[in-house]
Specification:
alpha+beta; 5-stranded antiparallel sheet; Arc Repressor Mutant, subunit A; Enolase-like, domain 1; Beta-Lactamase; 3 domains
């Protein structure tokens, strides 16, 4: 029996049970549901409906004499009902104000997302994360920092104020003044172009024999080539809130090995980015519950994410917490924060 086949009464009883369980963490009795559901039905009727829901896999009974608790499938029905009846929400003014204060006049995406992950984690008391990923990043500017000898730190700022850093071997010692001239040349020639186009243009110019007569120009193009070689799909990703995973009162029922696996995933950020890319393929809300996760390590948790698309850049704000979380609050938080990030960036540009 799919959720779409549930009667209105069954849906309301299931939703009430999930809400009660989220609040208390205790199995919910039929007497309590009869009292709190507002349906005006007897405890016997409620028990009959609960038995049907249990047979269909939406609930389970920890002990024979205990009440019932929702399964992953029961949580899914509850969340779908929330999304169906969701009203527009607005981020609390203090959250957007704090984002603007942290961002300053010219916010870099990486810095802004660090603030976002912190704010979401603090507000939800869960793991908060923020991701920006561009499929076709546009060069805003490039900078070079002399590290000593032939080693040079390259800083690439691309569309959406994303920052990528890379250390390259210039093949020779280059002075700081020359690196400034090199950066000025590249920014004048290529700023505003997609990075993939910049790479192709740099390779083409290096093949032109006339460029070899200008030593500084050759240095600039070779540095740009080293920087843009094997150019990855750019992303900025921040995750915060590891301490919340250790709060036993919140994460009851989550084993230590499971918590450890999630902590390791938070350390290996590329793994989390790859996981999010499996779940998110466009703008809007994404909610992944328990067994719906593609990785077993997350099947004791739920994930809520909100994605906005600006040109070729995806921006996602989200949180990870126990299945017994306040879904309505989490959905409102990540959605409104995503909108606030978009407004901050639009105003800055």
């Amino acid at each position: 029996m799919g959720s779409f086949e549930l009667s209105d009464r069954s849906r309301r009883l299931l939703a009430t049970l999930v809400r009660e369980y989220i609040e208390t963490g205790e199995p919910v009795s039929s007497q309590r549901l009869a009292r709190d559901s507002g349906l005006g039905v007897s405890s016997a009727t409620v028990r009959s409906v609960l038995a049907q829901l249990e047979d269909a896999g939406y609930l389970h009974q920890p002990h024979t004499s205990a009440g019932r608790v929702p399964t992953d499938r029961g949580y899914r029905v509850f969340v779908d009902l929330l999304l169906e009846g969701r009203k527009p929400t607005h981020v609390p003014g203090r959250v957007e104000t704090e984002l603007r204060q942290r961002a300053g006049q010219s916010p870099l995406m990486d810095h802004l997302l660090a603030s976002v992950s912190h704010l979401v984690s603090r507000a939800s008391r869960q793991v908060g994360f923020a991701l920006a990923e561009s499929h076709l990043a546009v060069l805003q500017r490039i900078e070079f920092v002399r590290l000593g000898g032939p080693r040079v730190l390259v800083v690439v700022v691309s569309g959406g104020s994303q920052v990528t850093q890379k250390i390259v071997d210039a093949g020779e010692d280059i002075t700081s003044d020359d690196l400034v001239h090199v950066a000025n040349y590249l920014n004048t020639e290529f700023a505003g172009l997609p990075l993939l186009d910049v790479r192709e243009a740099v390779l083409a110019r290096l093949q032109q024999e006339r460029t070899l007569y200008d030593q500084l120009l050759t240095r600039a193009l070779k540095l740009a080539r080293s920087t843009l070689e094997e150019l990855p799909r750019q992303h900025a990703f921040h995750v915060e809130g590891a301490a919340s995973l250790l709060d036993g009162s919140v994460h009851d029922g989550v084993s230590l090995p499971t918590l450890r696996a999630l902590l390791e995933m938070m350390e290996e950020k590329e793994q989390m980015v790859n996981l999010l890319n499996q779940y998110i393929d466009g703008p809007g809300l994404t909610v992944v519950i328990g067994a719906e996760h593609t990785t077993p390590d997350l099947r004791s948790f739920s994930l809520i994410a909100s994605t906005a698309v600006d040109g070729t850049t995806f921006r996602t704000v989200g949180l990870i917490g126990p299945m017994r979380m306040h879904y309505s609050r989490g959905i409102a938080l990540v959605h409104s924060t995503t909108e606030a990030v978009s407004r901050v960036l639009q105003d800055a540009n």
